[in-house]
Every structure is written in structure tokens, then in C-alpha cells.
Fold:
Amino acid sequence: MKDLISINCVKLLIPALFYTCVCSSSVEQKIYVELNQTVPCVRLLNATHQIGCQSSMSGDTGVLHVLETESDLDWILSSGPHPPYMVILETSFFNRSVMMRMKNSSRVAGVAVIVSKTGLADNFSPHTTCPNQNTGVYSENYGPDLANCNVTVWNPFGNGLSYEDFAFPVFALKDENQTQVIRKCYEDHNQRVNGSAPQYPLCAMQLFSHMHAVTDTVTCMRRTDLQNRFSINPEVLCDPLSDFNVWTSTRPLNNSAKGHAADESVVIAATRLDGRSFFWEQAPAAEGTVSGIVTLLAAIQALYPVTQEAPPTRNIFFSFFQGEAFDYIGSSKMVYDMKRNDFVIDLDNVHSMLEIGQVGLHSGRSLWMHSDPISRQNNSVDTEVSEMMDRMRSAAAGLKLTVDHPSVSQPLPPSSFQRFLRERQIPGLVLTDHNTSFINRYYESMYDDAENLNVTYPPGLTPDEQLVYETDAAKSLAEVATLVARSLYVQAGGNESNLNNITADPKTVAQLLYGFVIQKNNSWFRSLLPPEVTKKGVNSILSSGPPQFYIGLGPRVHGPAHSVTRFVQYILANLTGSVTNLTESQCQNPSELSTENKDLFSYFWVSGPASVNSTSEPFCVRASVRLSKAVSPAFELLEYGSRNYSTWTESRWKSIRARIFLVASRELEMLTLGVGVAVLLLSLLVTYFISSKAELLFSSARETPTTTY
Amino acid sequence: MTVAVFFGCAFIAFGPAFSLFVFTIARDPLRVIILIAGAFFWLLSLLLSSLVWFISIKASNSQDLRLQRDLLIFGVFFSVLLQEVFRFAYYRLLRKATEGLAAISDEDTSAISVRQMAYVAGLGFGIMSGAFSMINVLSDSLGPGTVGIFGDSQYYFITAALMTLALTLLHTFWGVLFFEGCEKSRWWVIAAVVSLHLLVAGLSLLNPLYEGSLPPVYVITLLMGVWAFFSSGGSLHSLSAVCTRRKAEGESS
Structure:
């Protein structure tokens, strides 16, 4: 209703333009409907390729056509009389065969995908079948017969769409109302009547997503460097994907001492922090990533009190790796730093490693311990790995979980652990819920959401009730977390008699799940984060909806760190830290206090829980939680064509936008031009004639004008 | 392909003004100066009226749509009156200028007659008002879209151009008649010009009902043209003398 009024208002304003000051936007408002809730697919580059989508510099325009049936596809690709077409795709048609047919056609100006769950196929993964194929441990030199997913195709549903290069823009339409506007425009103007072509004016759409970078990272970095060197106004063309890893340890490690830590032997427990999908910053990654994050966080919380009372002999080092979806950015950077003694520990300090993969427990309650068959050819490693498996099995004894290992010859699934194995034969396991290929049917797609992880709530719950509601998914993930915590404790040399004290809290798991897959702006997250973040409008990291897990460009875009990184950092700080009575300024600058140690601890100023009718009381938390940079070593070594390290960069762009409007027929345009030319010629003729005869025409005037000059 | 629309509209809106300028103004520096000054005076009137309109819009309740519409109508009519006031001011200025010009001139008479000044000043008014009503429309006509997604007529651009054309010519004719009225102290002529200006402005408020606004405006333009032709010294006799070879329209020159 409001819209109608404003449109009428515009209609009213237009005639006034003839007489009053012209507001340039008014005519534009009559022509264009801007679509705000759109998400583009953007261009990413690595050492050898460009992937993603882009439009031309001034946007790509095409006549709208909604792809509803197979015959529509023929219409678009061959018989329709108004190419190029802007194709509106229903979810069910967003698959490889349709997209590739359109990619190879010159009659497609762009694609807009309606994001909805209706008509969603029972599997959809735009990722490759063999994630991180070339940067894992398996290669020509290391298990050549295991390389390239020869033994197990991990993501059999992968269609590789995310790794195609489209010459036209592809957008996702997220807003239901705008989808309706587009549909209405299509139905009013473009619908075929009895198979005949629709009449002009036709509804068209224009998509802008021009990307500055082309070809590959090598080219784009060279051009950027050249500009930096010679241009007064250098323009960066692409930025490396980067952010931060989050790490903590049960015994604080001295952050200022780099290299080998004397008398330290650590068990690494790791998981990854990021995911991706076809569209930019649309990565819910619920089963793919959140299951691991939540499990590890809950395990850390369960372990924390016991490790303080009865510390195990070894230190446990928890790490959340960022950028793992893009050829292991985070883990390769940490390993690289360990190798050149630029990290708090080095590889000699690593005793063993346990990585949490996808543990969504989609079907059944069995977990699988994956190990590396090549390093297990070494007897000592094999013994260690077997012992780890035994410990884990015994830790699972009291739980409703079965833990088993896949066939010995099967390689590791895609995991950060592979990056450690590239350097050192560390004994380690990767814990997942799949024996062979992934159970996750929507791996690295925008449909890997709460529903896919089985996080659903009974109807009628308020957000605060949902926050603490223990779903089945939460309960089973709590079991997994308990298993992880117990086996880590034993693995670190802890006393088995303490195991019963280690139990992950299902309520924490429920809250974590709610925050990471349903709604990040909840009371619990707000209480854990610093007050300036929770203030409305200041920072967008607490916008509505679940967080997105695409790594992005780190500090340039997200401020200090990516929102997920910050969440994990602050959740960790609150779960493992101790509350101090420092003031805000002391908390921000604890090195001035003799009682506090900045090398061992980080200090976090957090909001604290809000009570019923008063504002929250912020306080200072001391925890050994740290961030470490997750940027591929390729960019530090300036090896933009590196084959060992991730070389992914994201292109820059000027504007991303979409709008719909009507286009006039060629006849009308030509008619306008014809009338214009006729008016011009006629007026030239008539004026010339009159001015040459002016003396004669106006001769009867009493005062004779002087006509010749 | 909307470049075609752009040029089509530009030719329609500014073709006549362009040809008038080329054949009757451009060769004489004094006329160019008077034209530019006329355009400047129209701009001044626009500045003032937009100021008033802006203040009234800001001061009023933006939610009250009826009030907004009333304000718009008020703004339009106020602007028209202001334009006529500035036309009169410009006339006074030019009168003073002719005396000055005559004083420094070698000959006894001024280098330009009042009637010619009237025509040139009117064209100056017309070109500037045409430019202001058309330029924004023209920039949007480049496309890629055309008007109509909210159900508006798809002939918006061409009608806007035709309206601008009529306005440019009307201002020229009004200029001739207004100065004539002032010169001969025929106040009813001035009153007729002002009221017809008000009428045309009122008609444009009928948009987007183009059938309601365009034909009457063109009828008025035609009548004004004929009137201006006769008032500036044309006659049926002279017309027929010229028209032995060709029929000409009643356009003043």
C-alpha cells in the first residue's frame, strides 16, 4: 500500500518537472525497480584459473524469462525471438546441466536464482568431487595411488559449479517480496500466450557485477604491483583470502616466545572455521563446518575444569583453522610458521593430532576414525595411531556412539591434518560421521543449513526458548563432544579415573547451535561479545540470521576479524577464561599491571549477561585465547603461482546491483528517432525559409526592422 | 538501442530552437547576448521559485499527500507568475539598454528593434525552460530501460519531448506578445499571456493523461503563433505574397 502511494506520488511529481526544479531520481524511479536483497557470484582466482561470474562493465541486460519447464530452456537457448535472455531459475533448475548449457550459449545475458527450499533436489553440492585435491598430502611423492581421490570420491554429489568460470553474472534472489515483483513483471509482460512471442514492451533485468581481476592470481598480483609502483592512484585488483585462526591451550603458552617450546608436548585438537558456496558470503556450512566448531567448543568447555584440577601430562592445543575450504589457508600458514620458528610451538612439540571433521550424525550414531595409511607404514606411527583409536573406542564406551575405523587402505578425507602430514609424520586421526564419502548431501552449498543439520524446533517457541531448547542434534553433538573431550584427556596423558567428570553440556551445545545456524543475534552471544559490538547499528557482525562462513578478505572487510572468527574467539574466552576485576582501561592495557601477564593471556572486555530489567554489567575476562593470521604463505613468499600453498584471491569490484525495468520495442525507438529527425529537418527548412523572407513577411510593420546583419 | 530514443527526443525537443538559433541569432553577437541574458533571467526566476517551493515542502508535513499535491499546484502557479515577473523585469532592462545602445550608436536608431529583442528574449526563455524540463528526461532516455514498469505510458519520452517543443515555441511567442503589450501599454495582452501561461501549466498537471494535455497545448501554441505573427507585423497579404511558391506556417522570425 505504501509503495502504491509512493508510486502515485512519483506520477504526480513528474508533470511538475516541466516547471519546477527537476529531481533527477524521479524519472529513474519511474523506470527502474532496484533489487536490494541480491547476492552475486563473484570472481575468485588461483594460480592458474579464474572462477565465478562477472558482468560487463556497464552491466548485462536481457529480457526476463522464468525457467519453469524444459520447454522454457529451448525457448531461451534457441527459439525465443528476443535474445539475450536474463534467466530466472527456480531452485530445481539450478544444476550443472542447465547451467552448462546456458554457459555455452550466447543467448543468455545472465542468471538470477530464486533461493528457496521448494523443489530442492535431494542433493546439491556446487563443490568439486574431490575438495582441495591438489594441496592435500597425497601427491605424486606421497601415496600416488591415493592422490586425486582415486580410492574414495569424498563428495560424490559435487557438480563443480563453484569452480566454473561464467562469462555472465549470476545472482541469487533472497527476498521473497522482490521475487514476487519480478514474477509479476514477467507475467504481465513476458508470458507467452499460446506459445507465441510476447509483445513489447518487455520486462528486462540488468545485473552489475563487473570484476576487476582476470585470468589468475599471478596476472592480477602483477598488475596490482605494477600499479603500486607506477601509478599515483594505485588500484588494487584482487586481495588474498585471509583472516585469522583461533587457538587456545589448556596450559597457557607464552605468546612472545617463538619457536620450540622446551618441555612442551602438545596434542592438537583442530577443526575448520569456514565454508563456502556458489554465491558470495552465502555459506551457512551447518553440517560441513558448524558441527565441527560446536563439537570442539563444547569439548573444550567440558575439558576445562578437569584440566585445571587434574592437569594431564601433555598440553592440549585447540585450533580453529580459517580458510580451509580454499586449499587449507589457515593450517598451511600455521604449519609454515611452526616450521620457521615463528609460532609459539614448533612441529617437534606436536605429539599427536585429532581433527574433527563433519560430525553432524545425519543418520545413525556411528563415527569413523580416519587415519593416513602412508604414515602408518612407519611402525611407531602405526602403534601410536592404533593406541589413539583404542583410547577413543574406550572413551566411547559409556556413550551411545559407536566408533570405528574405515578400511586401512583408505586415505584421509580432506582435512587440515593433511597439511601437518606434509611436513612431519605425526600420528593423528580425523573424526567424521562418514565411513567413505560424505553423508552431507549439500556440502559447501547454500542449502547446508540448520535443516540439513537437523536443528529444528517445535513450533511456538520464542527465540529465547529456542536458544536453550535441546534438539536431538544438540544432544548427539554433545555426545560427540564428550567423546572428543574424553579421548583428548586420555591422549594427553590424563588419568582415566577423571573421565566421568568430563561431560559436554547439551545446553551449551544447543546455544552454540542456535547461534551458529539459526540466529547469531541472540542474548547469549550478546552477553559474550564486547559491548561495542552489541550496540545496535555500530557493527554489522550481529545482524539478524545465521553467520556466514565464507572466509572473505579478513581485516579489510570485516574490521578486526571475520564475524565467525570473533564469535569463536569470544566464546572460547568466556568458556575457558576467568573473570577478573580489571577496569575497562586496564583490560585493554593489562601490561601496565604487574599482576597480569600479557604474554600468557589475552584480555577480553565482554558485555556480560543482561538481567531482566537492567542493562548488562561489562567485565574483563582473562583467557589464553589467541588469534593467528590465516593468510596463505604464498603471499608472504610472493609466490603467486605456488603449487604448495593456497593462492586464492578475490577480485575487487565497484558495484554489485540488480534492477528490473521495461524495454521498448525497436519500432517505437525508431519511430521516436524518425519523428525527431523529421522535426529537426522541417524546422531547419521552415526557419531558413522564413528568415530569408522575413523582410517580405513582416513588411507591414510600422517600424521597419533592420534585417540584415 | 535506446540511443535512438535519446537522439529522437533531443531532436524533437531542441530541433526548432536549434534551427531558430542557427538562422536568426547566431550571426549577430548582440542577439546572442540578449538570448543568453534572457536565459539567465529565466534561470533567476527558477531559482527563486524553487527556493520558495523547497522551503514550503520542508516546512510542511511530508506525510500529508493531499497537502503535498496542493503545494505542488501552488508551486507551479507561483513559478509561472514569477517567470512573467522576470519577463517584465527583463523588458525594463532591455528598454534601458536600447536607450544606452542608441546613445553610443553612430546612427540614430538602436542596432536592434524592440520587436527583435522580444523575439530573441522569448527564445532565450524558451530554450532555458526547455533545457530544464528535458535534460533529466534525456539522460534517463539513454536506457537501458523505458518508462512503464508501474503501468505508466510507454510514450513518456516522446510526449515529454513534444511538450518541451511546445513550451519552447510558446515562450518565444509569449515573449513577442508580452513585449508588444508592454511597448504599447496594452495590458490585456500581458494579462492574456500570463493567463495562457497559467493555463498551459495547469494542463501539464493533467499528465500522465497525455491526451488531455498535449492537444490543447498544441492548439494554444498554434494560436499564439498566429497571434505573434500578426502582432509582429505579419499580415495575410504578406503571407500570400510569400506563399506564391510555398505555404509557410505561422511562425514568427
